[in-house]
Fold:
Amino acid sequence: MMQKIEQIIKKEIIHQGRYLQLERFHVLFPDGLKGDREIIRLPDSVAIFPVDGEGNVHLVKQFRPAIEKILTEIPAGVIDKGETAAEAAARECEEETGFVPGRLIELITYAHAEGYSTAFMTLFLGLDLKYTGKMQLDTTEFLEPCSMSFPELKKNVASGRVIDSKTILGTMLAESRLLDAE
Structure:
């Protein structure tokens, strides 16, 4: 079977922001035609699905300007320089919810916007939570911690009330891991 790979002829930076870089790739398509691809270069990130001993999932509510909606999501954030994905997940969980996981189980690393972004996200299940109350939001983070039972979260995912991809995927993958742990 022939691989249909696009050959990159030239790359140019269109915009350099604090968090992302927008690039234009001039490419040669497998059929010989030329075209452009716009690529967003982002840092890799983590998300954590924190579940306490009573089966409650600790989430955050946050306004997302790109879609102009308040979403209910699992805690997440970028991996800082010199930090492992697991360290970033534990840090983000505490910063956003006040809970530190005693145990982290890596669920998956995936490309969450592969059509236009270079970033990967690693998703963890966080167990044996300890409440420290040490929330430390970034100056640009305005979120509210909340929690709901796992069955309630599943219902909200199935009904379309939870629309965030990392939370949907986390719910699906955490369910099988939690059943295995019983």
The mean pLDDT is 93. The radius of gyration is 19 Å. The chain has three helices and ten strands.
